[in-house]
Protein 1
Amino acid sequence: MNVEDIKAESHRLRGSLLKSLADPITGALREDDQTLIKYHGSYQQDDRDIRDERRRQKLEPAYQFMIRTRTPGGVVTPEQWLKLDAIATRYASHSLRITTRQAFQFHGVIKRELKATMQAINATLIDTLAACGDVNRNVQVAANPLLSSAHATLYADAARTSEHLLPNTRAYYEIWLDEEQVVGAGEEQEPIYGDKYLPRKFKIGFAVPPLNDVDVFANDLGFIGIIEQGVLVGYNVSIGGGMGSTHGDAETWPRVANVVGFVTREQLLDTATAVLTTQRDFGNREVRKRARFKYTIDDHGLDFIVAEIERRAGFSLQPARAFGFDHNGDRYGWVEGEDGRWHLTLSLAAGRIADTENSPQLSGLRAIAQVHTGEFRMTPNQNLVIAGVPAEQRAQIDALVAQYGLDAGNRLPSALARGAMACVSLPTCGLAMAEAERYLPDFSQRLQPLLEKHGLAQAPIVLRISGCPNGCSRPYLAEIALVGKAPGRYNLMLGGDHRGQRLNTLYRENITEPDILQTLDPLFARYASERDGDEGFGDFLHRSGIVALPPYPTHREISLDLHA
Ligand code: SRM
Ligand code: SF4
């Protein structure tokens, strides 16, 4: 069955999940249920490292499940942290993985423990509903603001947007939490989503200028907080961002969002509903790879879509207000919020938190969670903020950070390595074509001598690696990106800016590490000697004519003068 039919016939996302879970013969779910479980925040996967060996032994693949949390803005309390850590250790692969959208992923959960794991997660008061599937996903929020009170308001707005856009079905609670079915599945209404939910996934991000850590222009819908005299007065709205594309398919492309206007905080939920339902009704339900909102905008035209949004919302968007972004990465180390509390940002290697021989990070963060009185914030760059630390507790946190080597990432020798991202990729991702997370530390190390040779160790160059063109590490916004093509082979993309406002361009196709290093060497040399002040690497490549904008037919760069 195709995905549209599976959704429509699923009895509001129930399908035969209960039967699939109860079947002791296989570690897998029935085929249609593999689609439906995504809406519950989980993916069926198999361990690709042992796939061939299992086949040789005539065993079914080593089926296992990934579970993703719905944690708007990536905020968790120390109590929740400790419980999630215990779940990772008891049911999953002994690691917590911070995603590029500020969620946790657990990997390696087996089918017969799936329900217990879901129940344990829900017992922390965190759920996984709508973390995957054709619905609104985990809402991103700027993680490391200096303006604490405006951020708190913005975070609350993001959290209520997330709640407002949740599916209405009780399927999740019945299947995982044993809630009794009181309403017939056929009678349940989905006022926002309708019978077939959205044509495709939908993503919302809330940014706080001047930081664009959420990469707001990669989201289907972006809200850019406008803060005047310390007060959050409303949001600029951006629509139509997205990264995914398919190698060699000219019908697909990454796209940066268009800034289309300004709305007040009171208009936020109506705006979100209007945008989401416009995509629900106009999105392409025939061709799934063309179903994202970015293509709906390109196919129908921006003016038509904006008019439709305004019609549904019942008000016109005001002209966008001036704002400016200065970087899309995180700021590491301690910063003081305006309320006098402190926030410590730790750089983590591709967001993976595990205990390894030289780096007991899971244990270290457990020790911090046991004494921390503030909160943890996962960043959209796969890093972690130990947030809201009273001044008098900084020394204690610093001592634990040092004891467990939690600052290893902050002490990496290049700014590039500290800020780099990589998607999960192998061995769990079924779509991976090349290594990403596991390759990032090696690649950064190989790049180090080149950076040093050209005096660029502290140049904040944005590097991102994805194991395939779906772009989960948002590679098309990076100044340097490797996009997986085949084992050990990548497309080298160059020329994004460091504010997340310009897409990069394919520079060399399907090359191996030695070629990548050889290609970058002379470019680093020119950048080192010809850059203009603190000009970014991507900006330099454009100014000097080394790369041009990519040949995609639609929105490739934010063209407004956004630098207020
Ligand atoms: Fe992603 C599919 C991991 C952020 C675009 N993504 C997947 C799957 C579920 C593979 C699959 O479909 O079988 C990956 C699971 C890997 C694993 O083993 O864990 C996966 N995506 C991730 C995460 C964990 C990457 C990471 O290293 O952190 C991120 C989880 C985010 C979250 O918490 O919700 C993740 N994915 C993204 C982003 C970045 C973002 O949203 O800011 C993108 C690009 C933005 C966008 O959506 O356009 C992204 N993921 C995709 C796509 C391409 C969608 C498209 O429009 O074509 C796929 C494939 C698909 O949907 O068919 C995909
Ligand atoms: Fe998997 Fe590709 Fe996403 Fe990486 S970019 S996690 S390889 S789907």
Protein 2
Amino acid sequence: MWGIIATWRMAVEGITEADKMLKNGADSGDAIEVAIKEVENFPYYKSVGYGGLPNEEMEVELDAAYMDGDTLDIGAVAAIKDYANPISIARRLSHEKVNCMLVGEGAEKFAHKEGFERKNMLTDRAKIHYKNRVKEVQQQEIKPYSGHDTVGMVCLDTHGKMTAATSTSGLFMKKKGRVGDSPISGSGFYVDSKIGGASATGLGEDLMKGCISYEIVRLMKEGKHPQEACEIAVNNLDEELKARRGKAGDLSLIAMNNKGEWGVATNIEGFSFAVATENEEPIVYLTKNVNGKCIHEVASQEWLDNYMKTRTAPLEEK
Ligand code: ASP
């Protein structure tokens, strides 16, 4: 059995590449890295890698993580600037015994010494998004932090090895130095090849309050199907946050166990995700939470066409 599952429609090209590799017996570390890089490299996905949305100071600061479910090795970078593929740097760091999570300048120094590709990650399009948002926020039409999506993936290869990985530009207009859940073990991702893995997208500050990726893996360890594990974890955290704090941020989770069974849960409308397994060609689903149960529907061609059209539409300064 092999399989890969990922947050958001933007992951489907990446998981299609990974699927081809997994079919041919590739290592899940190699497959997940290729899949995430595909998303990082596509300039029109504005919340991951090249073209990612900038922070308050118009700088693109990226977070990424990689975990090996066999060895439990973890590598992560946070608030790294001007490197093309944060995921590859995170994976390289996962081979270190210590110093395996680096932030800012330290992460950039490491990447430079290791010969990773430097790149100005701020595109003209992202600058326009930034300038427009500054105006919108001034006019108080919109919350400064809305408009963010992390790519998070869990992968199983034919040898039974599982990996998890994330990559993101984090919250749009975040403070310089702000780090969300994505590079944080147990919150943005977790994987154990003996059980399965999970990964998150949404409001990092709230996802971290439930260590939600670890919680899903823990529930799967108790014997829960990934779908049930995701629903329990998302619904519980959503309820706790609302009860204690009056509201809950966006929480969307994907998971896969070591049999290639998968699950997804969300507390928002219209969460999309992509999945491919030995039994399922790469496909995009949309999911919604109806009274605690998440119902997945295959995305229509119209939805998919519209998605690409809006992502790549010409953008003008307001
Ligand atoms: N979880 C990410 C963060 O808080 C953002 C997202 O997934 O939308 O940085």
